Amino acid sequence: MRRRQALIAAAMVATALAAQGQGATATGEVVKVDKAGRRITLKHGGVPNLDMPPMIMVFHVRDAALLDGLAPGDRVRFEAARIDGRYTITALSKAP
Q: Do residues 76 and 27 touch, judged by C-beta distance below 8 A?
């Protein structure tokens, strides 16, 4: 019984760690693009992996090239994580 409990606990921890590492896709609308500052302001829906409700906020962008071709009003899909204490976009593309 103890071994079974230990295995269940280990599986739960592994699942939680995997969920933290994975970026869940969220959607939003571009409000402002600051390529020089590597920032983007998004009006977004909930971001599940960050337990973040819908809001308008500024995200740091890991790679400024992700901002190429984006303009206010564009619909986007993105993945974000908390990196070095900042909410950071790790993947970003225009939504159809």
A: yes
The answer to whether 48 and 26 are in contact (CB under 8 A) is yes
> Selecting from 3.20.20.70, 3.40.1000.20, 2.40.50.320, 1.20.1420.30, what CATH number does the domain 2-94 have?
2.40.50.320
Is the pTM above the cut of 0.85? no
Are 56 and 6 in contact by the 8 Å Cβ rule? The answer is no
What φ, ψ does residue 88 adopt, rounded to 5°? Answer: -125, 130
Q: State yes or no: pLDDT of 18 exceeds 90.
A: no
Q: What is the Cα 40 distance to its own chain's centre?
A: 12
Structural domain boundaries in the chain? 2-94
